[in-house]
Each structure stands twice: as structure tokens, then as C-alpha cells.
Amino acid sequence: MKTLTIIIPERMSGNRLDASLSEMLPDHSRSKISAWIKSGDALINQKFFKPKDKSCGNEIVYLTFNQKQTNDWIAEKIPLNVVYEDEDIIVINKQSGLVTHPGAGNWTGTLANALLYYDSDLSKLDRAGIVHRLDKNTSGLMVIARNEKSQKYLVEQLQSHLVEREYSAIVYGHMIAGGTVDEPIGRDPRDRVKQAVLTSGREARTHYRAIDRFKSHTHVKAILETGRTHQIRVHLSYVGHSLIGDPMYGGRVRFPKKASEELKDALLNFKRQALHSKKLTLIHPISGESMSWKIHLPDDMAGLLEVLKKCDS
Question: pLDDT tens, 75-127?
Fold first, then answer.
């Protein structure tokens, strides 16, 4: 347990107390500071106050860091493919089939449970240091924060669209050219599990271009400018190129005319959306250095491409 004494200067008189503390504690997010105030970890003259209360200047704030666990998720010994790590971040190559964090129906066996086993100190961070997510059946690169300062700066980079995330996808249809889908996404009012392009949704932009073209399918590079739930799956489906193996947005398996048995088997037996987070570029939250990682396609997607090259060219 650590106690910090903070004197709010007179120049901040009239400002909200949470805003003043946020300015004086730049390594911590405003939401975290508000949580400290509400929990009583931050006191003025040993008395509670509210985040929205105004400063009079010269208040003495006593802040107690309890370093307690932020959740009751359990640590589990689940294999992780760590691509890079240092004192501040971990970059992993998430396998398909792994849910990002516990939730309804998946309280164990998730990436968060694996991370807590890998580094028990992550229990002190919101969401075990996870700052963005991949769908259960999407594989590839993710960055994890190892301390609160890193978490704050990574979240800010994601919100400012400074983190570059490049994906590989294999889709139905022969894509003639690339482009950008600039369409808002929100929860589908007809099916609450799905997302959809909606005028009332949040802004979402996906840039895409063809890497390899086949008669009835295309290997696509997609770059996220925003990061909405299911964004690539929704946007590529919207332009008529749904992902292979994605029944939620693509419907049932479709075969080209005169498809060989080998191609039919490959399409039928591909049991997840053909989507992989291939490249991740960001600014290191502590050093300020631009860092980038790129990994090969997983075996299932590489194998599917081999069949397409052989049977759908």
C-alpha cells in the first residue's frame, strides 16, 4: 500500500476535481481517478468527495494505492504464443478458438485467464491489461499492457487511430479492386448477437485490397482505421465479400460451379472465419519508439489458400 499527497494549485480553482487530478497524474486515466474518488481511495481532509465537485484551490488530496485485484478472474495454465515482451507490454499471437476475456458462457479458458497465469501482476490492471480484442475465432497479433501507464497510453493510441492493425482475410467472390468501407456500425436490432451497418451506429472505416485473386474467392488485406466489434466481417459482407467460414455474416457454405471435391471439402471443413491479425504497429508507451510485428498466416488459412490456388485458379 502506498499513499500519495497531492496539493491542487490555485490555478485549477473552479475545475472539476477529477479533471484537476487527471492533469496532475498524467500516467493514470481519468476513469481510474474517478474510480479512486468513488471508492474512497482519494480523500480531501479525510473526507469523501465527488468527481464532479469543484476545486477551490490548495486542497490536499490523500491518495491511497491499494494495488488490489481489479477482478476475480482466475489464473489458468493455457499456452500462449508470446511474440515480444518487455517490462511494459506483451505482444501475443492469439490462437483461434480462444475468447479474449471472461463473460457470459465463457468464465474460464480465456486469454485473460492465460495472461493472469503468465504474469500475476496483471491482476492489478483493468481487464488484465487487455486494451483491444479479437473475436474468439480470429487469430493473430494483440498487445497487452503490463502497467497502468502503458495501458493508458495504448488506449489513447487506439482511440486516436494511431495503432495500425493489418489483417488477412479470405472471402467469397472475385474482388476486382480494393477500396474503403466508411459505414457506421451498431448492434443489429433484429439480432442482438450481431452487428450491422446502421445510420445510427458508430463511425467505422475499413481499408481493403486484394492480395491474391481466384475465380470465386479472394485473399484480402484489410486495415482497420477504427475498431468496432466484428468490423471487418460486417464491412466486407456489406460490400458483397463475406468471409469464408463465417456463418454469422456469410450464411452457409457456397461452392463455385464445377467445384472439385477437394475444394468442396476444404470449404466445408474450414470451421472459423478466415481472418487473421497479421501485422501490428504502435508507438511504445514508455520509450516512444515505433514498433512493428508481422507474423505468418496460421496453418489452416495457409492450407486453404493452397487449395484455392490449385482448384480455383
Answer: 999 999 999 999 999 999 999 999 998 876 778 899 999 999 999 999 988 88
pLDDT attached to residue 148: 87
Residues 170 and 147 in one domain: no
Whether 135 is a known active-site residue: answer yes
Average pLDDT score over residue span 273-293: 97
CA–CA separation, 4 and 41 (whole Å): 10
- Whether 256 maps to a domain, the answer reads yes
Task: Copy the grid coordinates of residue 238.
Answer: 456489406
- Nearest-angstrom CA–CA distance, 89 and 288: 13
- C-alpha dist (Å) from residue 68 to 26, 102, 217: 21, 19, 51
Q: By C-alpha distance, which of 279, 180, 276, 273 is closest to 235?
A: 180
Q: How far from the centroid of its chain's Cα atoms is residue 133's Cα?
A: 3
Q: From CA 24, how far away is CA 43, in angstroms rounded?
A: 16
Of the residues 159, 174, 203, the one at which a domain ends: 159
Block residue for cell numbers 486495415: 223
106: DSSP letter: B
126, 135, 246, 300: which one is catalytic?
Answer: 135
Averaged pLDDT of the chain: 90
